[in-house]
Design brief:
Blueprint lengths: L1 E2 L22 E10 L1 H13 L12 E3 L5 E10 L2
Length: 81
C-alpha cells in the first residue's frame, strides 16, 4: 500500500508515471527505486547527472506503509530499433 503525504494520490495507488507520445519504434520503460528517502533522492540525482533519466521524470517519493522506505517511479520512452 502506498501513502503519499505530499500529494492528492489515493491511498493504495502507486504513483503515476509521466505519459509521453510514442512512435511505432518506441516503447515505455519504467524504473522503480525503493530505499530510504535520502538514498532514493541521491540515486535520482546520480541518474540525472549522467543523463540517464531526468530528475523531472521521477514521481515524488511516496512512503511505503509500515516501512522506513519510499518508492519513486520513472517512465520514459526508448527506441526499439
Amino acid at each position: 500500500m502506498f501513502i503519499d503525504r505530499d500529494s492528492a494520490n489515493d491511498a493504495g495507488q502507486p504513483p503515476e508515471a509521466n505519459s509521453a507520445q510514442s512512435s511505432p519504434h518506441e516503447e515505455p520503460v519504467k524504473m522503480t527505486l525503493t530505499a530510504s528517502r535520502q538514498a532514493v533522492e541521491r540515486m535520482i540525482l546520480l541518474l540525472h547527472n549522467r543523463s540517464i533519466i531526468a530528475g523531472s521524470e521521477w514521481s515524488r517519493p511516496v512512503v511505503i506503509k509500515n516501512s522506513p522506505e519510499v518508492i519513486s517511479v520513472a517512465s520514459r520512452m526508448i527506441g526499439t530499433n
